[in-house]
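Good day; I would like, with your permission, to put a structural problem before you. A protein sequence and the structure tokens that stand for its backbone fold form the material at issue. The record follows directly beneath this note:
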Amino acid sequence: MFDTNQISHTPAFVLDYGRFEKNLQLIKDLQQQVPVSFLFALKGFAMHAVFAELAETACGATASSLNEALLASPYFGEVHAYAPVYQDREFETIARIAKHITFNSLSQYEKHKNDCPNAKKSLRINPLYSTVETPLYDPCARGSRLGVLPEDLEVLPHGITGLHAHNLCESGAGELEQTLVSIEKHYGHLLPFISHLNLGGGHLVTRRGYDLELFKAILTSFSLRHPHIKLYVEPGAAFVWETGYLATRIVDIVQNRGITTLMLDSSFAAHMPDCLEMPYCPVVVGAKLTKEGGYRLGGCSCLAGDWVGSYEFEKPPKVGDMLMLCDMMHYTMVKTTMFNGIALPDIGIVRNGLYQIVKSFGFDDYQRRLS
């Protein structure tokens, strides 16, 4: 851990550049060992202060909107686009930027196929294999609006040269293996006719304990069975897994009938919504989760449920203490809001032990979002 006394203003997202570089190196090594190309998905992490480094590692970027495509295009030579639906007013510009465009439905493809003559075109499929327990995050749930079902895709429409599947979320190599088994089972009749298969995100290859040898073996085996198919994966989290923190301070301590809450200058609702949606309790430096007693962490918004967990601390916490919430790079700053007018956290980087703020926010940012 670096010297947190350098952080004079909280809350702040803090990228640990050394850890970030280690993740990039692991992904670089995998691309040399396995027939797969890693794309960087902006939906999980869009801190463009380090896009140059990401572009040196990833083979391209995946955008889910016009804004993401515009943000990615100056850095990444190859931009892929996928959205559940494309906005008519945006598609022309997306089509100029993206070299690969994936359509969520046959009707979306029919609508836009003539508007992107220079892009490779894919369809998103539903691999019919669920790995995610939280329904909010499960793209293969019954009635899902994401992807074409096998019974609706007996043949490839003219002009479609690839398929795209995304059903994983912070998953392991075993789930990837079963995903490919399901794709071959349900869509195997189409595989001889495609040139590329995108296996989406959720491949958490940089997590400790991830079975990298199985990952390599699975993709190598698939490639040997289907040598004409170029494989892509597009994780967002894997690039920045466990590479940073949200620094926040205790500004008050309140008690209510035996429950003690540390009131923070950050908000789970506004700054860390995944904690409430998944839900999960972040790891806190110098503390551990406990089932009973302990301290809740309370956010600064007026939402009654803006709190998480029950923590025991190595030292009794007090007003003014800084807390470091771990693994807060992916799906945090990209999902922040200014609910209640709460300012967004600073964005900073620690390089060689030195902390530098690369972005801060104020009233102008709040005012510009509203009429």
